[in-house]
Amino acid sequence: MRRSAERARRPERLDEVVRVPRRLDARLLVPVLVAWPVVAFVGLVVPLAWVWSGAGLSLLGAVVLVRRVRSTGLRLTALTLSVLALVLLAAAGQRAVRDVGPLGELAEARAVVTVRGTVGKEPLVVGGPAVASSGQEEARRGPTVLVRIDVREVVGRGQATSIEAPLLVMADQAWSGARWQDDVEAVVRLSPADPGDDVVALARPKGPPALTGQPGPVFLAAESVRADFRAATEGLGADARGLVPALVIGDTSRTPPDLTQAMLDTGMSHLSAVSGSNVTLVLGVGLGLCRLLGVPRRGRPWVALAVLVGFVILARPEPSVIRAAVMGAVGLLALSTSRRQAGVPALSAAVIALLVWDPWLARSYGFALSAVATLGLLLFAQPWGRVIARGLPIRLRWFGPVLAVPLAAQAVCGPIVVPLQGTVSLVAVPANLLAAPLVAPTTIAGVGVAALSVIWVPGAAWLAWFAGVPAEGIARVARTCAELPLGSIEWGDSALAAVGLAVVTAAGILFAPWAGRSARLRPLIAGSVVLVVVAATLPTSVAAWPPPGWVFVACDVGQGDGLVVNSGTSPDDDRAIIVDTGEDPQLIDDCLDRLGVRVVELVVLSHFHADHVAGLAGVLEGWEVTELRVSPVAEPEMMARDVLRMASAAHIPVGALRAGDTVRVGAVRAEVWWPGHPISDGSVANNGSVVLTVDVRGVGLLLSGDMEREAAAQVVRAARLHPERWGEIDVLKVAHHGSSNRDDALLDLVTGRVAVISVGEDNDYGHPAPALLDALGRKGFDVFRTDLQGDVAVVVDGQGRLGVRTRD
């Protein structure tokens, strides 16, 4: 009788079984969240003895707890301590290996040595007159090539030593021909790297590298495939020519810079870089072909593994590519319904393995974004997709999972992106949605192009058009969305701003179900709330510009200086002094137009790098200029000659400014503190910058050009000898766009605590350097930046009170 009742309760069909969803296993995620920041901010920075001690104590604690495990909490604590000990041991061990040998000591002594090693990453070419990396600079005219060398041997002070240490070479175009995995030898001058950097030292070469060996046959074959792929896409338009190789193998060498910026602004950059999503797409294409070809289910993982290995070799197995490959594999797992429960443990294990393999990934924004985006897919993509689908008509429910993927990625990545951009994108989700249907055909056709180009480049060139058409569509989406008004909102770039956005995002996720139910029950109230929020977000008015009482403006001229001092005898006068003109004539012209300047009484060019003088042509053509004063250090010579030629053509008198000179123009009095004599250390041009203290209607300004620590020390010495000339300084124009090559003693001579940094948005030089921002913060400065806040104006009201206004 009992058996009959049990039989009656059993479902007769399999589809009648009620599936109870299993909870995601997040136990391994807790140790990752603890170990990651400890490695990033402790394990890679503090002295090695402390790291060894921390690893030992963590291991001891884990052993003690394992022997007394009686609860889930203790087991989790023991697991956390075990993982922490593992990653700290890995960090300490790798740091110890890198520190073996004399390279660090030679770098501290700034010695000239011969290094032999292998090119560890594809050389990166950056434009501009100067490059800053890890607190060191090299200033020169023309592009700069950054090359990472995995050094095997260093010859210095008459002794050759075998080592294993990475070195960052900052070179000129003579190094642009170096290929990944080439064996090279070079004579370089070393300098120390900052604590926590992923290189042991920095180097400036004394000449081109000597090639001593080539990559192995596998990597040479991969390079041949990349070259054939580029040849096959040569006939496409500029955007497609750059995007097709980027989407397939992460080759962004031909992507137009403005398109790269548009994709950054719209949250689409993951499509064109070697990222986890990039790998997921390629793996998805491979598995899709398996289904079409009837490959048995058991054989598909092996095909996926072969595709993954081939992709890594083709994209080059650098740390960023390995990281992307691992995250892409986990991301594919995240999109698999049958394996979703294993996703979080797999992601956590992958992060731990990568941190053990390369602890410096803990300080990488790219790694953080990949891991967090993958976590967002695991936690939110499927449940959000189901919830969104339930609210859509039956024929459109397929759109729910499609919308959930970019929504989940944007929600979890936002707090990490904010410190980089200072804004929250409002177009990232719609831009990715519009581009999503175009990504698959571009990738599928692109894979076919890559494969066919190996044996028949002309045929691959015809096939490339099938990839190029949707790629052009992706580019159009990026460019159009980047130009939309209110595409982003200012949020701030501080750690507090990131935490604030994380709290807001978490609150939105937690309260979204309640808000959805309330909206259905009370649609009128919900609509009113939405209108109020939108109205509060939109700007209500445009701030007047120029602000009343302005005395000084740092124009937003990109990566350069374009400074305007109001020289009129009254605040409403239309006369000004310009100190440096930026690189783009149009940008400085626009700034002067906004300020209502009609007469330029004096132009001062601090030094002759293009980002300070190339905009002069626009000023001379559009304004009445009375006089031009320049640095006596005519470096680089070609740009100095161009400046003199432009001034001669415009019949503008030219003079030099030297330490001890005094300049009076209208309401402005300026004292010249440098240059006093040429400095051969560091950058000759930067250390030849004209340094001025300016008094304009009671406000003291220190305009420091691009001077480096050597010139700054001279200025500090002179200021202490002649305090009566130095006076009270209210505003510091930070030298060299926020470079960390500085003398902090200068900060103590600034009475006021306002610092203005003229710097380009998303520049390639690392400006402003975190070390410099930290120093300003410790000294109590209020920092204003043109890359984040646009034009920065210093103003004085009717009572003589100083203020700062920005044109965001």
Automatic annotation (TrEMBL):
InterPro entries under this entry? ComA-like_MBL, ComEC_N, Competence_DNA_uptake, Metallo-B-lactamas, RibonucZ/Hydroxyglut_hydro
Cited Pfam families: Competence, Lactamase_B
Q: Where in the cell is it found?
A: Cell membrane
Residue span(s) of domain Metallo-beta-lactamase: 559-736
Specify the superkingdom.
Bacteria
The UniProt entry lists membrane topology as: Multi-pass membrane protein
Which segments cross the bilayer? 28-52, 72-92, 321-337, 344-361, 367-384, 396-417, 494-512, 524-545
Coiled coil (UniProt feature): none
SUPFAM superfamilies the record matches: Metallo-hydrolase/oxidoreductase
UniProt keyword annotations, A-Z: Cell membrane, Membrane, Transmembrane, Transmembrane helix
Q: What PANTHER family does the record point to?
A: DNA INTERNALIZATION/COMPETENCE PROTEIN COMEC/REC2 (PTHR30619), RECOMBINATION PROTEIN 2 (PTHR30619:SF1)
- NCBIfam families hit by this protein: ComEC_N-term (TIGR00360)
The protein here is known as ComEC/Rec2 family competence protein
Q: Which species?
A: Intrasporangium calvum
Q: What is the lineage of its organism?
A: Bacteria, Bacillati, Actinomycetota, Actinomycetes, Micrococcales
